[in-house]
Amino acid sequence: MNRKLLVNTLIPLAAWILFLAIPVPLGLAPLAWYYFALFAAVIVGLILEPVPGSIIGLLGISLAAALQLVGKTPSETTKWALSGFSNSTIWLIFVAYMFGLGYEKTGLGRRIALNLVKVLGKKTLGLGYAVALSDGCLGPFMPSNTARSGGTIYPIIKNIPEIFGSYPGETARKMGSYLMWTGLATCAVTSSLFLTANAPNLLGLELVSKTLKISISWREWFLGILPLGAFLFLAIPLITYIVYPPEIKSSAGADTWAAEELSKMGKIKGKELLMAALALLALILWIFAGNWMDATLVAIMVLVIMILTGVITWSDLLEYRQAWNMLIWFGTLVALADGLKIVGFLKWFAGATSGMMKGLPILWIVVLMVAIYYLVHYMFASLTAHATALLPVFLTAVVAVPDMPLKMVAMLLCYTSGISCMLTPYASGPSAIYYGSGYIDRKDFWWLGALFGVLFIGLFLCFEVPYLKWYLG
Description:
GO terms for molecular function: transmembrane transporter activity. The chain is mainly α.
């Protein structure tokens, strides 16, 4: 074991021991604190990654189960440990990888990518805006950002870097890293800009309605964030281009070369048309069948048809290690994050936070609550789980504050759901997919998530809070 690996292995263990040595906070059950100590050590391990992330996740689950930190009986503990693998988002992520494989095997992905290069390939920045516009066009119609960004856009854009000799690993920064982060950051903004672009937005409004008896329309939501949302949407490709620049910034003759490659590919093949038809079927069902068919069920149905029609084979599915690795990695993290709610840590944390704010000016309470609600997503592996666990608690806390602008606070809290989806590699379905592509290095993902997270919440608090106060009157 080399020195760096040894240090990266010891630091998570040291973090675990350090948290265990701290006295249990007042009002929190000892087991909840011990569980949080283990969870924090797992997060440190994921940042340093002395071993693959999937192993770290499995180790965390195994230790929590062996120490009986979650669940009152062995059967309850086992049910919790395996609960992450029954999460629908995880399987949607898995199928998104299979869609990508279908685009790759049939050649459709390369054909679409070549056409994009033919039109916009002279400048990498132009390709970045093509990725952003694709997400923006689909945003209002697809409540699952995993289906939209991971199942529709990612399988196409993953073919573009390869055309320019950019692959996961040493050549990723040529172009692939830039396009992948642009895709994820744009997805985050789109998910907040449109009420129907992110399922937790709709869940959030339902919780607001039940808790505060306040209704918020699609129009109110959209106009309430339009100025900042539109600015961020248009700025993301350029900001990413500046802070995480691609090595290939322009390519003279790329359009001509792409046209030649398309000519070599010849007319579109039957398998390509079949893949296109199946992708279109999935897209139509995701947009229009949401009331009677879950997005994951749609994806699995289309995957089965892909296998039956020979677009991909069963062996292709079994041998796609990247997809299976992501399934295990994200499944363990969803269970670990859910454990924080089960042991009561999140309820205690929210209560302690609201208690500390008593006596502060209204504006400060609003700013602090929104910032804390946003940043606490570092402890979640699901946007839906975050909203379900904490939004009712935060809403209940603000009701107790005299003269609190309840509708404004409710909208601010709900808006943060989308823009938090790129904070960590496990923050959401799209983040797991783009991280799993191999184009964004582990260290790069963490610092980019922190940088864009600070940028998003900073602009949000500085401009969105006063704007929304003015807009709502």
